[in-house]
């Protein structure tokens, strides 16, 4: 898979760690920045990853900031993006099975590295269940299109 990664300064270290983890598993990485832990503004990186996914430059995206909140809000402003902030593997599983999330958001100041990598693994290996969940996700997409 090709995965777009983005983070602010607070998420930079975890992004680098995820990058290494994904590369070891043979995934292709599209690094949307930031490239150091010098203070930056998270919205830019959320928008960049969101756009990369919507423009099919990546199959899926991962965004990281201090809490995962700001960067997920930003990514969700890109039409068609369903970014899910997850703090454990169960949430990651549900984000894919029930919500067909196309971006995973993580909080580098909230969870440890081991938990983060478990979440990433679960997110990337779980499929959307469809069925009644597709109807609900379609309701969100329809609302978004009408807005
Ligand atoms: O939701 C926002 C993120 O958690 C940011 O990473 C955080 O606000 C950055 O804070 P600071 O600029 O104080 O490091």
TrEMBL record:
Active site: 65, 98
Keyword presence, Isomerase: yes
Alphabetical keyword list: Isomerase
Catalytic function, reaction form: aldehydo-D-ribose 5-phosphate = D-ribulose 5-phosphate
EC assignment: 5.3.1.6
Top-level taxon of the source organism: Bacteria
Alphabetical list of Pfam families matching this protein: LacAB_rpiB (PF02502)
Pathway: Carbohydrate degradation; pentose phosphate pathway; D-ribose 5-phosphate from D-ribulose 5-phosphate (non-oxidative stage): step 1/1
One GO MF term attached to the UniProt entry: ribose-5-phosphate isomerase activity
Keyword Cell division carried by entry: no
GO biological process: D-allose catabolic process; pentose-phosphate shunt, non-oxidative branch
PANTHER family (UniProt xref): DNA DAMAGE-REPAIR_TOLERATION PROTEIN DRT102, RIBOSE-5-PHOSPHATE ISOMERASE B
Subunit (UniProt): Homodimer.
Similarity remark: Belongs to the LacAB/RpiB family.
Protein name: Ribose-5-phosphate isomerase B
Organism in which the protein naturally occurs: Dehalobacter restrictus
Taxonomic lineage from the root: Bacteria, Bacillati, Bacillota, Clostridia, Eubacteriales
